[in-house]
Specification:
mainly alpha
């Protein structure tokens, strides 16, 4: 999609900041807005879409998961090591350069995020009357 956008084959897109930031800061793409609730610290001059469409917020997020029956000791060990990595100043700085916000937390925190996002987008799907084909 970015290749087609840069080549002028498509006129507009919704893309994650980490993938498009380099092109925006180089002046190859013009960012109209970010879809997060707050402006990005990396490109604070770009408004949020919520400034034009009140209440609009859509964030891209990533997480690590394990199969349902993974022993809790393994989950806890992975969670502790991942959180330690996310606290590393170098890694944290690199994520910030890419326009990412790091959200370390517990497996329970991540489960709540997934549940909240699922409920939020379920309302959108229902309101729009969307159906799976």
């Amino acid at each position: 999609m970015l290749v087609d956008l840069l080549a002028g084959q498509v006129q507009v897109s919704f893309d994650g900041l980490p993938a498009s930031l380099e092109y925006v800061t180089a002046g190859k793409l013009r960012a109209l807005a970010v879809t997060t609730a707050a402006r990005s610290e990396v490109v604070p001059d770009i408004p949020t879409l919520g400034e034009f469409v009140p209440g609009y917020e859509a964030s891209q997020w990533y997480g690590v998961s394990a199969p349902k029956n993974t022993p809790s000791q393994v989950v806890d060990k992975l969670n502790n090591e991942i959180n330690a990595g996310l606290r590393d100043p170098g890694l944290k700085a690199r994520f910030a350069e890419l326009g990412c916000t790091v959200l370390p937390g517990s497996p329970t925190d991540f489960g709540k995020l997934i549940a909240d996002e699922t409920a939020k987008w379920a309302k959108v799907v229902k309101f729009a009357g969307l159906k799976a084909d």
